[in-house]
């Protein structure tokens, strides 16, 4: 059964699902193994908040990568809606200055 897949993604939360979707777009046959709603995973615990503050303290390259990843979510949300019809309600708050 599992030999029919190229890749197994463990965890169907925000990141696991995004990775599986991206691999599928590249033509890979993907299976997602997930524990279900009983798991206390990151996507459930942070209520889908994508944040960048305090990440990469003292590591400017990591900080820049995190900001770029956060900025890319709008495009990902638009592509998901276009391909699946699902609106993931992506929105950005302006930074406080």
Summary?
Helix content is 42%, strand content 8%.
Structure description:
The protein has 97 residues and is mainly alpha-helical. It contains 3 helices and 2 strands; from the N terminus they run βαβαα. A two-stranded parallel ribbon has the order 1-2. Strand 1, helix 1 (14-25) and strand 2 form a beta-alpha-beta unit. The longest helix is centred in the C-terminal third of the chain and has 25 residues, at 60-84. The N and C termini lie far apart (54 Å). 1% of the residues are buried. The mean pLDDT is 81.
Topology record:
Blueprint: E1 7-10, H1 14-25, E2 30-33, H2 42-45, H3 60-84
Parallel strand pairs: 1-2
Which features does this protein show?
97 residues, mainly alpha, two-stranded parallel sheet, 8% strand
Distance between the termini: 54 Å
Uncertain segments are: none
Lateral strand order in the biggest sheet: 1-2
User: What's the story with the biggest beta sheet?
Assistant: 2 strands, parallel
Radius of gyration: 16 Å
Rounded mean pLDDT score: 81
Q: What general outline do the C-alpha atoms trace? A: globular
Number of helical segments?
3
């Amino acid at each position: 059964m599992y030999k029919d897949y190229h890749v197994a993604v463990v965890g169907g939360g925000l990141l696991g699902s995004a990775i599986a979707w991206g691999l599928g777009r590249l033509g890979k046959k993907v299976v997602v193994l997930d524990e279900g709603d009983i798991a206390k995973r990151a996507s459930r615990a942070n209520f889908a908040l994508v944040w960048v503050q305090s990440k990469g303290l003292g590591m400017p390259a990591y900080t820049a990568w995190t900001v770029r990843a956060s900025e890319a979510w709008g495009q990902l949300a638009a592509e998901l809606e276009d391909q699946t019809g699902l609106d993931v309600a992506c929105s950005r708050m302006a930074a406080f200055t």
